[in-house]
Design goal:
Chain lengths: 275, 430
C-alpha cells in the first residue's frame, strides 16, 4: 500500500512516530509533505498553546543534538519507544525518512497546486493526516482510498477541538476515532472507534492527551494493516444533522475537566479497594 | 439605546444630527485638555488593530479577574450619575458627559441591584434608589415615559416613547421587587397600561410613539418588561400582550437564524439591535415558558457563536442572514450576546454557550481602559476601534450596563457550576 503522510512540521513528533509505526509494520510511507517549520502562523499558534518557555525548550531539543549521556528530550514521553533508535532519538521527519528511505517535501500550503502535483506524482493509495491545513476537495480526491485522520474523541459524539476535555465534561467516553476526512469537520466515514481504557490512570489533561496520541497512532497502524488486508470498511457517520462541533476550551472549563479526571481516578481507586 | 431620538421624523432628525455634530466638533475647542486622552486612545486602538494576530488572541486564558473589571464598571456608572439621579448616556472624548438618559437610567437599575446582591456593595443600591426617584418624576400623565435625552436639543424628545417606556419599566418593576413600595408598582402598572393601549392588533408597536413611526422586532425588549410586570403584579393581561408581541417577532425569524424587521432607516443592522431582539425574545420566552421562543433564539445564537469561535470576533453590523457586514466591534452588542449565551447555558446546560461567553467576556475585559480618569476608566466604548461606526469616540452607559450584566451572570453561573459536587447534579447535563 502506498502511503503519504501530511504534517504541520518536520519536527512534529506525532508525524515522526506515525511514520515509524507504519514502517515497522511494513507500511513505510512513499513520501511526506510538511509545512515550513519557521512558519509565522504555526509559531504564533504554538506560542499561544505552550508559552514562550516551552517553545524555546522544544526548539532546543529538536535543533541541538544531545551529547554523551544526556537524556533525549521528547515532548510526548509516550512516543519515546517509537522515536528511539540506535541509542538516539528521531528528532525530525527528515531523520525518519533517511532511515526508512522516503522523500520529504516542504510546501507552504498542503492544498496548493504544487503540493497536489507532488502527491499525484507519488500516487498514494492512502494519505495520513498528522496536522496542517484544512484539507480541500482537490487534495481529498488524490488518494485511491482516501485521507485518514486520527481524531482524539469518539465520533460522532464529539467533533472539533479540545475533544478529550469536552468528552470528560459531557460524560462521553474518552477515546479515539480513525476516520476518513471529507469536506466537513470530523464528519467523514468511520473506520474504527476505540474507547481509551487507561483514562483513569492519567495524571493530568496533558498526560491524557499524550497517551491518546500514542493510542491513536497504534490504532491507525492497525487500521492501515486491516485496510491492506481488505478486512475493514468505513461506516458513514449517523445524525450528522445534529450539531456536535466543539471549540477550543476556555481555561476555566479546562480546570473543571481536570477536576472531572481526578474524580474519575478517585472513583476507580475506590472501586479497586472495594474489589 | 433606541437611536438618539426615539420618535423623530426624518426631516427633523437630519437637523438634530447636524446640530449634534456641530456640538461634538466644537467640544475640543471648549475643553482643549480633552485632546490628550483622545489622542492616547486613538493611538492605542490603532496599534492594537495593527498588531492584532487573530489566531494569537483566542481569549482562552483569564488575564484580568472579572471582579476587578466589575468594580471598574460600577465606578464608571456611579461617576456618570448626575445629582438629580439620572445617568448620563455617554462620556464623549470630545464633549464629556452627556445629559441624563431616562431609558438607560431605567434599565440600569436591575444591574445595580444585581451588583449589590453579588458584592454587598451599598453604593449600587443608593444609585438605583435615586435613579428610580428621578424616573418616577419624569412619568407622563398617560403612564408613558419620554424618549431621548433629558432636556435634549429637540423639543419633540419629550414625547412619549414605547421603547423607552418598556426599558424604563424593567427598572421600575425591579425597584418594586426590591423595595415593595406601592407608588413604584403604581408607576409600573400605569406604564404597562399605556403600552397595552398603544399596541397594534398584530402585536407590534408602531405609530408616533415608535422610532421612525415604524414597527421594530427589537421591541421584544418591551415584551420582556411586560412579562416581568405580569409576574410582579400578578395580572395576566400584561403577559398576554407580551406574548402577542413575541409571536409577531417570532414570525420574523428566518431558517438561517436571521431576524428581519429591525427596520432602522439610515442605520445598518448593528449587533446591538440584533442582540436586543434575541435578549427580549429569550427572556420573555423563559418567563412565559415558551420553548418555541427559546429554540428560535438558540438557533440565531448558535449562528453567531460559530462566527465568534471561528473568527475570534463578531462584526459590528451584519447584512441579512449574517452574511458580511461592517468590520468593527460593537462592544455593547458583544456583551449582550454574551448574556444571551450565558442564559442559554443556564436553560439548556450546553457548555459550549458558557465556553463562548467566557471567551467573549475575556475579550471585552481586555478592551476596557483601567486608567484614564473619570468617564474613561472602566468605560465601555461604543466601538472598537473607538472610531468605529457605532457611537464613535464615546464611552456609553448602556455598554457598561450590558457588560456588567454579562460578568454578573458569568459569576453566578460559574459559581453554581463549580459548586455542584458532580456534573450529573446539573438538571440537564448531557
Amino acid at each position: 500500500m502506498r502511503i503519504v503522510i501530511l504534517c504541520s512540521s518536520v519536527y512534529s513528533e506525532t508525524a515522526c512516530a506515525m511514520a515509524v509505526r507504519l514502517s515497522k509494520s511494513g507500511h513505510a510511507p512513499v513520501g511526506a509533505i510538511a509545512l515550513p517549520t519557521v512558519n509565522r502562523g504555526t509559531l504564533l499558534r504554538k506560542l499561544g498553546q505552550w508559552g514562550a518557555q516551552d517553545v524555546i525548550r522544544y526548539a532546543h531539543s529538536k535543533l541541538i543534538p544531545q551529547r554523551g549521556d544526556e537524556q533525549p528530550q521528547v515532548h510526548n514521553s509516550y512516543l519515546q519507544s517509537l522515536l528511539k533508535h540506535k541509542g538516539g532519538i528521531f528528532r525530525s521527519l527528515r531523520e525518519v525518512a533517511k532511515f526508512y528511505d522516503f522523500p520529504v517535501a516542504i510546501r507552504n500550503d498542503q492544498n496548493s497546486p504544487d503540493s497536489i502535483a507532488k502527491l499525484k506524482e507519488w500516487s498514494p493509495d492512502l494519505i495520513i493526516f498528522a496536522g496542517g491545513n484544512i484539507l480541500r476537495r482537490p487534495l481529498l480526491q488524490v488518494p485511491r482510498l482516501g485521507v485518514l485522520n486520527v481524531h482524539l474523541g469518539m465520533l460522532p459524539e464529539v467533533r472539533g477541538m479540545s475533544t478529550p476535555e469536552w468528552s470528560l465534561l459531557n460524560n462521553v467516553p474518552v477515546g479515539v476515532t480513525v476516520h476518513y476526512v471529507d469536506a466537513g469537520i470530523d464528519t467523514g466515514p468511520i473506520l474504527q472507534r476505540c474507547e481509551f481504557p487507561d483514562a483513569t490512570r492519567c495524571t493530568s489533561l496533558s498526560d491524557l492527551r499524550n497517551r491518546l496520541v500514542a493510542f491513536g497512532i497504534e490504532k491507525a497502524g492497525e487500521v492501515v494493516a486491516n485496510l491492506d488486508r481488505g478486512t475493514i470498511s468505513a461506516t458513514p457517520q449517523s445524525h450528522l444533522d445534529e450539531d456536535r462541533q466543539f471549540f477550543v476550551m476556555h481555561e476555566w472549563l479546562q480546570a473543571r475537566a481536570s477536576e472531572r479526571l481526578t474524580q474519575s481516578q478517585t472513583a476507580a481507586t475506590a472501586r479497586m479497594v472495594n474489589e | 439605546m433606541n437611536g438618539s431620538n426615539d420618535n423623530a421624523v426624518p426631516g427633523r432628525t437630519a437637523k438634530v444630527q447636524i446640530a449634534k455634530a456641530m456640538t461634538e466638533a466644537t467640544g475640543l475647542l471648549r475643553r482643549p485638555q480633552r485632546a490628550l486622552p483622545l489622542i492616547r486612545r486613538l493611538v492605542s486602538d490603532k496599534l492594537h488593530i495593527t498588531f492584532e494576530q487573530r489566531h494569537l488572541y483566542s481569549y482562552t486564558t483569564t488575564k484580568r479577574p472579572s471582579g476587578v473589571a466589575l468594580n471598574s464598571l460600577l465606578r464608571w456608572i456611579i461617576d456618570a450619575q448626575h445629582p438629580d439621579g439620572g445617568i448620563a448616556a455617554y462620556y464623549s472624548l470630545l464633549t464629556g458627559y452627556s445629559q441624563s438618559y431616562p431609558e438607560v437610567t431605567g434599565y440600569i437599575v436591575p444591574t445595580l441591584y444585581d451588583f449589590a446582591r453579588s458584592t454587598r456593595d451599598d453604593r449600587a443600591v443608593s444609585v438605583a434608589e435615586s435613579a428610580t426617584r428621578w424616573l418616577l418624576s419624569l412619568q407622563m400623565p398617560t403612564g408613558a415615559f419620554p424618549g431621548g435625552l433629558h432636556g435634549g436639543l429637540a423639543t419633540h424628545e419629550s414625547q412619549p416613547s414605547v421603547f423607552n417606556t418598556g426599558q424604563i419599566l424593567q427598572g421600575v418593576v425591579r425597584a418594586h421587587v426590591e423595595t415593595n413600595r406601592p407608588e413604584i408598582l403604581q408607576a409600573a402598572v400605569a406604564a404597562g397600561d399605556w403600552l397595552i393601549k398603544v399596541q397594534q392588533p398584530d402585536g407590534s408597536w408602531s405609530g408616533p410613539a415608535a422610532y421612525q413611526n415604524a414597527a421594530h422586532t427589537y421591541y421584544s425588549m418591551v415584551a420582556w418588561a411586560l412579562a416581568e410586570l405580569s409576574d410582579d403584579s400578578g395580572d395576566p393581561k400584561y403577559a398576554v400582550v407580551a406574548e402577542r408581541n413575541m409571536d409577531w417577532v417570532l414570525s420574523h425569524f428566518r431558517p438561517s437564524g436571521w431576524v428581519d424587521g429591525i427596520n432602522l432607516q439610515g442605520h445598518p443592522n448593528y449587533l446591538h439591535f440584533i442582540a436586543y431582539v434575541l435578549q427580549g425574545v429569550l427572556e420573555c420566552g423563559i418567563l412565559r415558558q415558551r420553548n418555541d421562543a427559546i429554540e428560535a433564539v438558540a438557533k440565531s445564537s448558535w449562528a453567531l457563536l460559530r462566527k465568534f469561535e471561528a473568527n475570534k470576533f463578531l462584526l459590528g453590523a451584519f447584512d441579512a442572514d449574517f452574511k458580511n457586514g461592517q468590520r468593527f466591534t460593537c462592544l455593547t452588542g458583544n456583551a449582550q450576546i454574551s448574556c444571551v449565551w450565558l442564559r442559554l447555558f443556564e436553560v439548556t446546560c450546553d457548555l459550549r454557550y458558557l465556553n463562548a461567553a467566557l471567551k467573549m467576556n475575556e475579550m471585552l475585559k481586555q478592551l476596557i481602559p483601567m486608567h484614564g480618569g473619570r468617564g474613561i476608566a472602566g468605560g465601555v466604548s461604543g466601538s472598537h476601534p473607538i472610531w468605529g461606526r457605532y457611537q464613535p469616540l464615546r464611552y456609553i452607559s448602556w455598554g457598561n450596563k450590558f457588560f456588567s450584566d454579562a460578568l454578573l451572570l458569568e459569576e453566578r453561573l460559574t459559581r453554581a457550576f463549580a459548586g455542584s459536587s458532580a456534573l450529573e447534579a446539573l438538571p440537564c447535563a448531557s
